[in-house]
Design brief:
Helix content: 25-40%
Radius of gyration: 28 Å
Strand order of the largest sheet: 3-7-1-15-12-13-14
CATH class of one domain: Alpha Beta
Mean pLDDT: 95
Oligomer: single chain
Low-confidence stretches: 1-14
Strand content: 15-25%
Shape: globular
CATH architecture of one domain: 2-Layer Sandwich
Distance between the termini: 81 Å
Structural class: alpha+beta
Length: about 800
C-alpha cells in the first residue's frame, strides 16, 4: 500500500453513502411540526403588512388617497410609491435595442398599473385584520385603458401599449439560428406543420411567498427572513433599492415549502416590506394569501410555437423551423428578464434529435398579466411537446411506428455538437426509449389498445440540460450571469462536520444528499454532517437553487471543499505520526491511518484537538484551523440528463375525461446520490407535468381580469388524478461534476405534457382530430369522439 491516492479513498463515486437510499434527515423535523417557515416567525412588537392592489389590468392611476386608510383603527402606516421613494428593478440583457427592450418595474406602481393585482400601496397595521380594513379603505380611481390579453391583441396594428418604450409590445425578438440547408430540405422532403399552444400556469408552491423584515439599530443591519430560492440576489436588490450598503442587509431563508422557480426571482413585495421595517424601526411581516398568489404571483408557460419539420421518406429529420412567441406578462423578472422562456426554447429545441438544419425566431411579448418567472422546466415542456408531436405526426405520415422514427433520429454518438452549437455529453437516449417501449409491450398494453378504441399510448423522449454554468448563461447575454457556487466546510473539536452551500433547499432533500456527498468524501458517519444554507452572512456568495444546479454545481463545490479538508487532515496526521503525507489516508471511519502500519490511527477529534487547542504542534505549512473553501462552475454547455416517458391513457366516451392507466419513467441523471430522493423528484415533477397537460390554466377576460381567484377556478390535480408512477434508472456518469451526478429536478415536468398529449392523440387518431394545445380539455376530447361516432353511424359502418 505504498503511495498516497490522488484523492481520499472515499471519492464520491460509489461506496458507503453515494447511491444509498438513506432516509431524509429533514423529515423528523418537518413531519412533526418542528419546521420553521416564514409564517412561524413571531418577533416582539411585530407589525403586519398587506398591499393595495390594482383592480384593473391596464390604466392610469387617476387618484390614490390613503387618508382614510391611515385613520383605520390599528393601522400604523400606509405608503405609496412617492412615500417610499425606492429604486426600481430593471433586468437587462446585453443586446442591441432592436433585439431587446428592458422594462422598469417599480416596487409600488407609479402613475400606471399593468396587471390586476399589481401592488400600488403598502398598509402596515398591528394585526392582519386591521391590514385588510386599511386596504379596503384606500381610495383608488383609474383612467381605464384597453388591455392586452393575447398574442393577437399584443401584435395587432395600433394595439394598446403596455410600455410606451415598447411600441410593438415586443420586448425580445431574436433569430437565434438560421443555418444553411433549411429551405432546400423543405423543398425536397416530407413536411410536417403544426401549431402548438400551452396555457398559462401558476407554480403553486405549498408555501406562498412571504417575508419578515426587522431593523437592528445595534448592527445597523436590515434582517429579512423570506422564502426565496435566491437570497443573495434578494440582498443585492434590497441594498440597491433602499440605497444602502450590502453589509447593511442580511437575508435568511428558514424552511421553505416549495418554490419551483416562482421564488428564484426577486419580488417587489419583500423589498417594500423591508423598506417599511427600516423606516418604522419595527419588525414587519407579510404573508401572501392564496388569492394574491393566484392572481398576482409570478406565472409561466403561456407559449405558442408555429413549427415545420422536414423528413426523408425513411423518416430521417432533415430540417426544423419554428416561430416562438412567449407571453411574458407585464414586466421582465429580475435577474432573468423576459428572455428566460424564449431564449431557452430557441437554444435547446432540437432536444435529443439530430437536426442538420435549423431556423428559429423567438419573441417575448408583453401583456397586461402578472409577470412570468421561471417555472420547473422553463420552456422545455413546451418545445419537447413540439418535437414529440412532430415525431408522432411524421410517423403517421410515413407509415412508421412512433418509437421507430424516434429510434432513427435520436443522438447515439457522444459528445455530440448540435446544430444549435450546444455540446451534448454522453447520455442514454436510445436505451431509455427502448426500455420504455419494452415496459409497455411486456405488460400487454399494446394488445389492450387493439381491443379498446378509447385507449392510447404515447411517448416522450427528451433531454434536460442541468447545472448551467456561467459560460452557458453568458450565451444568453445576461448582464447578471449566474453559474458558480461556493462551499465552506469545517470540522469542530467533536469531529462533527459543518458544511455550507449557496444553494437553497425547498424540498429537494439537500440536508440528506449533501451530507451523503460529504460523508463519502471524508469517510465519516452521516450523522456527523450538518448542512447550513440560506444565510447571506454565513455563506459568502451563492446563486441559489434553480435549473437543477444543486447537486451538479452546489454539490460539486461541497465535494471539492471536502476533498481539500481531507487533504488538510492527512497533512496534519502525517506530521503527528512522523511519516510522509503520501503514507496516510482517510480510513472511512472518521480517521486517518498510516498506510504501511494501519494500527497507527488518529481520529478527526484527535486531529482537531491539535489544530485548535495545541496549534504549536502543527506542521509549519498548516494553519490552526480545519476549514476548507471551494468554488465550482460547470464548464462549457453543462451536462444533460435524459429520460423517456411512456404513458397509457383512456378517454371516457361519455364525458371526454382522460384517465392515465400507466405511467412509466426511464431516467438517467448520472450517478444517483440517493435513489429515493431522485424517485421523489421524478414523481413530483411528473405530477406537475400532468397538471399542465390536463388541468391547470389561468385564463383572462377581455378586460384582463384573471379567471383564477381560488382553487374552485384553478384546477389542481389531487392524488386521485395522479397515477402510480414507476421510475427506472439508467446511469451515465457525468465527466464534469465531482460526483458524476447530473441534475434531476425538472425532468418529470418536462416530459409529461408531451407523453400525455401523444397518448390522447393516439386514441383520437381514428377521429381525424388531433389536439395541439395543453391543457387538454375534456370537451375537446368528447367533441372528437362524438363526431367520429356520428360519422360512423351515418355511414352505417
Amino acid at each position: 500500500m505504498a503511495g498516497k491516492p490522488e484523492e481520499p479513498r472515499f471519492d464520491g463515486r460509489g461506496g458507503r453513502w453515494i447511491g444509498a437510499s438513506v432516509r431524509r434527515r429533514e423529515d423528523p423535523r418537518l413531519v412533526t411540526g418542528r419546521g420553521r417557515f416564514v409564517d412561524d416567525i413571531h418577533l416582539h412588537g411585530m407589525l403586519h403588512a398587506g398591499f393595495v392592489r390594482a383592480t384593473v389590468a391596464h390604466g392610469k392611476i387617476a387618484e390614490l388617497d390613503l387618508g382614510a386608510t391611515r385613520e383605520v383603527d390599528g393601522v400604523v402606516a400606509a405608503y405609496s410609491a412617492e412615500d417610499l421613494q425606492l429604486g426600481d428593478m430593471v433586468a437587462l440583457l446585453d443586446r442591441p435595442p432592436e433585439e431587446f427592450t428592458p422594462t422598469t418595474m417599480p416596487i409600488l406602481a407609479r402613475g400606471k398599473v399593468r396587471f390586476v393585482g399589481e401592488p400600488i400601496a403598502l398598509v402596515i397595521a398591528k394585526d392582519p385584520y386591521a391590514v385588510e380594513d386599511g386596504i379596503e379603505a384606500a381610495q383608488v380611481s383609474y383612467e381605464v385603458l384597453d388591455a392586452v390579453v393575447s398574442e393577437e391583441t399584443a401584435l395587432a396594428e395600433n394595439a394598446p401599449l403596455v410600455h410606451e418604450d415598447a411600441p410593438s409590445n415586443v420586448l425580445l425578438d431574436v433569430t437565434s439560428f438560421d443555418t444553411p440547408g433549411v429551405d432546400e430540405a423543405f423543398a425536397e422532403g416530407c413536411v410536417i406543420e403544426l401549431v402548438t399552444r400551452s396555457g398559462r400556469q401558476n407554480a403553486l408552491p405549498l408555501e406562498t411567498r412571504g417575508a419578515v423584515a426587522s431593523w437592528d439599530d445595534r448592527d445597523e443591519q436590515l434582517l429579512v427572513q423570506t422564502c426565496s430560492q435566491v437570497p443573495h440576489q434578494v440582498r443585492t436588490v434590497l441594498a440597491r433599492s433602499l440605497r444602502i450598503p450590502e453589509r447593511s442587509v442580511r437575508v435568511v431563508v428558514p424552511d421553505m415549502g416549495g418554490g419551483f422557480g416562482q421564488k428564484c426571482v426577486v419580488g417587489r413585495e419583500e423589498i417594500a416590506v423591508a423598506a417599511a421595517a427600516k423606516r418604522l424601526r419595527r419588525p414587519v411581516k407579510w404573508i401572501e394569501d392564496r388569492s394574491e398568489a393566484l392572481a398576482s404571483g409570478f406565472l409561466a408557460r403561456e407559449q405558442r410555437y408555429r413549427t415545420r419539420a422536414a423528413f426523408t421518406p425513411d423518416g430521417e429529420l432533415t430540417a426544423l423551423e419554428s416561430d416562438i412567441v412567449c407571453d411574458m406578462g407585464a414586466y421582465s423578472c429580475y435577474p432573468f428578464t423576459v428572455g428566460i422562456e424564449p431564449l431557452m426554447a430557441a437554444a435547446e429545441m432540437p432536444s435529443v434529435y439530430r437536426v442538420p438544419a435549423y431556423r428559429v425566431r423567438a419573441r417575448a411579448i408583453t401583456s397586461n398579466k402578472a409577470p412570468t418567472a421561471p417555472y420547473r422546466g422553463v420552456s422545455r415542456p413546451q418545445y419537447v411537446m413540439v418535437m414529440e408531436r412532430i415525431m408522432d405526426l411524421a410517423a403517421r405520415e410515413l407509415g412508421l411506428d412512433p418509437v421507430e422514427i424516434r429510434r432513427r433520429n435520436v443522438i447515439t454518438e457522444f459528445p455530440y455538437v448540435g446544430v444549435n452549437k450546444v455540446t451534448y455529453d454522453p447520455g442514454s437516449y436510445l436505451e431509455s426509449l427502448e426500455l420504455g417501449e419494452k415496459i409497455l409491450r411486456d405488460e400487454g398494453w399494446y394488445e389492450l389498445r387493439e381491443k379498446n378504441p378509447h385507449i392510447g399510448i404515447g411517448y416522450s423522449c427528451f433531454s434536460e440540460r442541468t447545472g448551467y454554468g456561467s459560460e452557458a448563461f453568458a450565451k444568453r447575454k445576461m448582464t447578471v450571469v449566474p453559474g458558480f457556487d461556493v462551499s465552506e466546510i469545517r470540522i469542530d473539536l467533536t469531529g462533527s462536520v459543518v458544511v455550507t452551500s449557496g444553494t437553497i433547499n425547498h424540498g429537494q432533500s439537500h440536508e440528506t444528499t449533501f451530507a451523503q456527498i460529504v460523508a463519502e468524501r471524508l469517510g465519516v458517519d452521516l450523522a456527523k454532517v450538518k448542512l447550513r444554507q440560506g444565510d447571506t452572512e454565513r455563506i459568502s456568495y451563492g446563486w441559489g437553487t434553480f435549473a437543477s444546479r444543486s447537486v451538479t454545481i452546489g454539490g460539486s463545490a461541497v465535494a471539492t471543499a471536502a476533498t481539500r479538508l481531507g487533504e488538510q487532515l492527512c497533512v496534519i496526521a502525517a506530521h503527528l505520526m512522523d511519516t510522509r503525507v503520501e503514507n496516510v489516508g482517510l480510513d472511512g471511519d472518521g480517521g486517518v491511518i498510516q498506510l504501511d502500519d494501519p494500527s497507527r490511527r488518529l481520529s478527526f477529534e484527535e486531529i482537531a484537538d491539535v489544530a485548535y487547542l495545541r496549534s504549536h504542534l502543527l506542521p509549519k505549512e498548516a494553519e490552526p484551523t480545519l476549514t476548507a473553501t471551494a468554488a465550482f462552475d460547470v464548464p462549457g454547455d453543462g451536462t444533460f440528463s435524459n429520460a423517456t416517458h411512456a404513458v397509457v391513457v383512456e378517454a371516457d366516451p361519455g364525458t371526454g375525461q382522460v384517465k392515465i392507466l400507466r405511467y412509466a419513467c426511464v431516467e438517467d441523471c448520472g450517478v444517483v446520490i440517493n435513489p429515493k430522493v431522485v424517485d421523489g423528484q421524478a414523481r413530483g415533477g411528473i405530477a406537475q407535468g400532468i397538471a399542465g397537460a390536463l388541468f391547470e390554466e389561468v385564463t383572462y377576460a377581455e378586460n384582463g381580469e384573471p379567471s383564477a381567484a381560488s382553487f374552485i377556478d384553478y384546477l389542481v390535480p389531487t392524488a386521485a388524478e395522479i397515477p402510480d408512477i414507476t421510475v427506472d434508472h439508467l446511469e451515465t456518469p457525468c465527466a464534469f461534476t465531482e460526483s458524476g451526478a447530473k441534475g434531476a429536478g425538472e425532468g418529470g415536468t418536462i416530459g409529461a405534457p408531451a407523453a400525455v398529449l401523444n397518448a390522447v392523440n393516439d386514441l383520437l387518431w381514428h377521429t381525424g382530430v388531433q389536439l395541439e394545445q395543453t391543457p387538454i380539455h375534456p370537451e375537446a376530447v368528447l367533441a372528437a369522439l362524438t363526431a367520429a361516432d356520428r360519422e360512423k353511424a351515418g355511414t352505417g359502418a
